[in-house]
Design a protein that fits this description.
By secondary structure, the protein is an alpha/beta fold. Helices cover 52% and strands 20% of the residues. The two termini are 104 Å apart.
C-alpha cells in the first residue's frame, strides 16, 4: 500500500474500525487498580486483570463513568453492597468500547452489577476462612489460657478514633475502682494501610509480650467497607499465631470479620470490650471472695473439730503425765546421788595430778633451754665463718677490678706503644671528622707532636 496517511487519519480509521467491530455494550469483569473523581464529578478508573497468582497483570484498560451516571451508580452500589468503589475491588461493569484520537482506548461504563461484587467478597472471605482451617491455625488464639486478672493491656487502634476514647474512658472510669495499665500501639484502622498497620503493631507487641496480659484491637463504627479490611488473611493469620489472647471490638453489629472469628474473644464495640474486661475482673473478685468464705468456713469446722479432740486428749493425757512425772522424778533423784559420788572420786584424783604435772613441766623446760643454748652457739659460729668468707671473696674481686682499671689508664695505654690523636682538644675516632689542612695533635708516651693534614683517604 503506497497511500500516505496523517496520524489523525490513521486514528480515525482505528476508531471507526473499533466501532464497527464492537458496536454493542459488554459486561466486563475487572479489578479496580486506580480510581479518581475530578472536580466536574467524572470518575476515572484504571481496570486490570491479574493472573491466577494475583501478582502479575495480564490486561489493563482505562475506564470512565460520566458524572451524571456516576452519582447514581455510586449511591446504588454502596447501598446494595455496603462497600464503596475502591482500589482492589473486583467489579462487573457494563461498558462500551470507545477510541479517541487524543486519549486512546477507553471503556465508557454505564452500569455496575453489585451482586457480582457481593459474591466476590463472600467468596474471598470463605477462601480465607478455609485456608486458615486447612493450616490448622483457626482456633489457636482461642486455645490460649486467659490470665486470671488481665490488667496490662496493649491496644491496637488509632489515637484519633472515637472508639479508642470510649474504650479508655469506660475502662478507667469503672465504678469498682479497678486499675488497668494500657499502652496504645497506633495503626490505621481503615483504608489500604490497615493491613500493614495492624500487622506492624502486633509485631511490636510480640517483641515485648512479657509486658502485657492481653491485646485489644478496637475501632469505632463504620461502613461495611471498613469492616472488609479485617477479612485480610495476613491480619487473621497474625492473630492466630499471637502469644497473647486477642480481643476485638471493631464496631459492627451485623457481621463478624475473619479477624473476629480467629480472635480469643470478639465483641461488637470498644465499650463492650471494656465491659468484658471489667466484668471479668468482677467475676474473679467474686470467685476469690467465695473461695475466701469457703476457706473460712472450712477452717472454722476444722478448728472446732480439733478443739474437741484436744480436750479429749487432755483428759486422757493428764493422769498419764502425772504418773510419768513421778517416775522421772525418782530416776532423777538416783542419778543426782550417783553423780555426787562420782564427783567426789574425781575431785580426790584431781588433787594428785597437779603435783606430778609440775615436776614433769620443770624438767622439760630445763631440757628445752639447754638444747636451745647449744643450737644458738653453733649458729653463731657458722654465721661468723660465713661472713668472713664472703668478705674475703669480695676483697679479692675488688683487687682484680682495681688492676684492670690501672691497665686501662691512658698513661699506661701509651706506655704500650699506642698514641692518642686529637683536634682542638677533641679525640679523633673517625676520619670523617677531619679535612685537608686541619692541624692535629698526636700524643706519645714521651711527648707530643703537631701535624697538618695533606691528604685524606677513606
Amino acid at each position: 500500500m503506497t497511500e500516505k496517511l496523517s496520524l489523525t487519519e490513521l486514528q480515525l480509521i482505528i476508531r471507526d474500525s473499533i466501532y464497527m467491530a464492537l458496536p454493542d455494550m459488554y459486561w466486563v469483569i475487572a479489578e479496580i487498580s486506580e480510581i479518581k473523581e475530578n472536580s466536574a464529578g467524572h470518575c476515572y478508573l484504571e481496570l486490570i486483570e491479574k493472573h491466577p497468582d494475583e501478582k502479575n497483570i495480564r490486561a489493563r484498560a482505562k475506564a470512565i463513568i460520566w458524572s451524571k451516571r456516576y452519582r447514581f451508580l455510586k449511591a446504588f452500589f454502596e447501598n446494595i453492597t455496603g462497600e464503596s468503589l475502591r482500589e482492589g475491588l473486583n467489579i462487573l461493569v457494563k461498558a462500551k468500547v470507545e477510541y479517541h484520537e487524543l486519549y486512546g482506548l477507553s471503556l465508557i461504563i454505564s452500569d455496575i452489577d453489585p451482586a457480582f461484587t457481593i459474591g466476590e467478597m463472600a467468596l474471598k472471605r470463605q477462601l480465607v476462612i478455609k485456608k486458615l482451617e486447612q493450616e490448622g491455625v483457626f482456633t489457636m488464639n482461642k486455645e490460649l489460657d486467659f490470665p486470671a486478672f488481665p490488667k496490662r493491656i496493649a491496644v491496637v487502634s488509632s489515637k484519633n478514633a472515637a472508639g479508642y476514647s470510649d474504650f479508655i474512658n469506660h475502662l478507667t472510669g469503672n465504678s469498682y475502682g479497678y486499675a488497668f495499665y494500657t499502652v496504645l500501639i497506633e495503626s490505621a484502622m481503615q483504608g489500604a494501610e490497615t493491613e500493614q498497620g495492624v500487622i506492624s503493631a502486633l509485631d511490636k507487641i510480640a517483641l515485648n509480650s512479657y509486658l502485657f496480659d492481653v491485646v485489644v484491637i478496637i475501632r469505632g463504627g463504620g461502613s461495611q467497607t471498613d469492616l472488609s479490611w479485617f477479612d485480610s488473611y495476613n491480619i487473621a493469620y497474625h492473630v492466630t499465631q499471637f502469644p497473647l489472647p486477642v480481643i476485638t471490638g471493631i464496631g459492627h453489629d451485623k457481621d463478624l470479620s475473619v479477624t473476629d472469628m480467629v480472635a480469643y474473644k470478639a465483641l461488637k464495640t470498644p465499650t463492650a470490650v471494656a465491659d468484658f474486661l471489667i466484668d471479668y475482673a468482677v467475676g474473679i473478685e467474686n470467685h476469690l471472695f467465695e473461695m475466701s468464705s469457703a476457706i473460712k468456713d472450712s477452717s472454722r469446722i476444722i478448728i472446732d473439730k480439733n478443739r474437741n479432740r484436744i480436750e479429749t486428749s487432755k483428759t486422757k493425757l493428764l493422769p498419764l503425765a502425772r504418773l510419768m512425772m513421778s517416775v522421772i522424778k525418782d530416776r532423777l533423784s538416783g542419778i543426782i546421788i550417783e553423780i555426787a559420788n562420782i564427783g567426789k572420786g574425781y575431785t580426790f584424783k584431781a588433787g594428785l595430778i597437779p603435783s606430778n604435772q609440775k615436776s614433769r613441766l620443770v624438767s622439760a623446760i630445763r631440757s628445752f633451754s639447754s638444747g636451745k643454748q647449744t643450737a644458738l652457739k653453733v649458729t653463731s659460729y657458722r654465721l661468723n665463718n660465713s661472713t668472713l668468707n664472703a668478705l674475703s671473696r669480695k676483697l679479692t674481686r675488688l683487687e682484680g677490678l682495681e688492676t684492670n682499671l690501672s691497665i686501662l689508664k691512658p698513661e699506661n695505654v701509651l706506655q704500650r706503644g699506642y698514641t692518642i690523636t686529637s683536634i682542638n682538644g677533641l679525640i679523633l675516632k673517625k676520619i670523617n671528622l677531619l679535612k685537608v689542612d686541619d692541624i692535629i695533635e698526636t700524643k706519645f708516651s714521651d711527648g707530643k707532636l703537631r701535624s697538618r693534614v695533606i691528604e685524606k683517604k677513606v
